[in-house]
Amino acid sequence: MSSINYAEKIPNNVNLSEDRKLQRALESWQPHYIDWWKEMGPEGTSTSEIYLRTAISAEPDGWAQFGHVKMEDYRWGIFLAPPEKDRKVNFGAHKGEAAWQEVPGEYRSMLRRLITVQGDTEPASVEQQRLLGKCCPSLYDLRNLFQVNVEEGRHLWAMVYLLHAHFGKDGREEAEEMLARRSGDADKPRILGAFNEKTADWLAFFMFTFITDRDGKYQLCALAESGFDPLSRSCRFMLTEEAHHMFVGESGVGRIIERACQVMKENRTDDVRKFGVIDLPTIQRYLNFHYSVTSDLYGAEVSTNAATSYNMGIKGRYEETKIGDDHQLENTTYSVLHPVNGGFQAIEVPALNALNERLRLDWAEDVAKGVERWNKIIAKHGIDFKLTLPHLAFNRAIGHFSDIAVDPSGKVISTEEFARRRDEWLPSESDLAYVLSLMGSAVTKPGQFANWIAPPARGINNQAVDFDYVRFA
Ligand code: BYC
């Protein structure tokens, strides 16, 4: 059941050939996807062979196979995690009922909206990252970028399959729209804010995969709890791929920090820019930016949308079934920080309305642990500097903090002061220009690394660090 059939035009483990109508619909979407990939996917890669992992089975222990693959020959497809016997709806008004294999009619539009929002982020991130290959710091990093890109492409397939299989004409239209929007486009932007930002350099890419892919993890975990079983199974399989993306981000930033610290020590100076590496205060400003922009992805702190989708049983909490409460939350409250009279106050609100905030805090705690691991690298070098996460109200565009100006420590300030001091806290034009100036041309000799980043501790899939992860034609 879970092994993937690669003999078909669209590899899948959902017996696609048994549903001719659906198969035809997806086969007619497939060339549009390929056209989109050629136009908006990683640039200049069509003939290179990349050491990629490809799913061969959706079972936990056997799905990854590694080998050199031409990007254009990559086989995207539809893979769901194996079904769980007698799975139930585990929360909300339908708690205890059998999980749904079809969309309950009255929940169609809410489910379609969530699947569309999730799906839209996937091609968006590929678009954001499409030029990075031209300035890669090594073949190892180039391979990781392409691995992330092909998997985001497959995550789009996962959501498009659900739209086609369960939402009829509306779903097919949404699937087409997914290929029509463009990250950062003034007329047809991607749906969520962070996915319209630029990812112009590798520090931004690593921050994005560390922080924003981690939002992906938490949102997918919440959707994996869904009573709509096909969504749950899709998200569970997507999560197995997401872990590598966050590793790429965390280790990438860690290696940039490592290199900065080496140069600081060797030259006994904080002023490392003249040695062509990225200084720690610039890394802090990138962290502030990506953290605040990604905080917005959780929506408003108090949200009736979130309450409704929980009540319906379609989007749960992080690790829902491990939480020891009634999983209905009708009579519970949750404390949410509000801006009040120039400061902040924790106010109890109905727990159902606070679900976005709760997921955001789960994510924030996880991000903070990663930042602590980065701080250990700095401490190991005996350098007196600590990266910190800004206050959750800092630089927000969505939710109830979006109307106030706050410095990274959480002090409420005037909008004039924020504008005046913005460049102390967020990457300035000159920070961005400096980091971009380091990117230069691609480093493509096996085992070589750009000056601004340390090599990784080990290679991919037990290969050496100087393995030829990408072979150019
Ligand atoms: N930008 O009640 P509210 C990933 C909209 S990342 C623009 O607060 P709700 C990945 C909202 O849509 C994970 N608009 O929101 C990572 C709503 O609009 P409508 C992606 C925003 O519904 C890296 C209105 O504001 N997955 O996978 O409770 C690489 C009122 O909103 C934003 C998901 O997000 C924003 N930031 O929560 C690749 C999961 N925030 O409907 C991939 C699916 C809110 O009134 N999505 N709005 O026009 C959801 O669960 C929810 O839609 C949200 C919003 C959590 C995003």
Automatic annotation (TrEMBL):
<dbReference type="InterPro" id="IPR012348">
    <property type="entry name" value="RNR-like"/>
</dbReference>
<dbReference type="GO" id="GO:0005829">
    <property type="term" value="C:cytosol"/>
</dbReference>
<dbReference type="GO" id="GO:0016491">
    <property type="term" value="F:oxidoreductase activity"/>
</dbReference>
<dbReference type="InterPro" id="IPR052703">
    <property type="entry name" value="Aromatic_CoA_ox/epox"/>
</dbReference>
<dbReference type="InterPro" id="IPR017635">
    <property type="entry name" value="Benzoyl_CoA_Oase_BoxB"/>
</dbReference>
<protein>
    <submittedName>
        <fullName>Benzoyl-CoA oxygenase component B</fullName>
    </submittedName>
</protein>
<dbReference type="GO" id="GO:0010124">
    <property type="term" value="P:phenylacetate catabolic process"/>
</dbReference>
<dbReference type="InterPro" id="IPR009078">
    <property type="entry name" value="Ferritin-like_SF"/>
</dbReference>
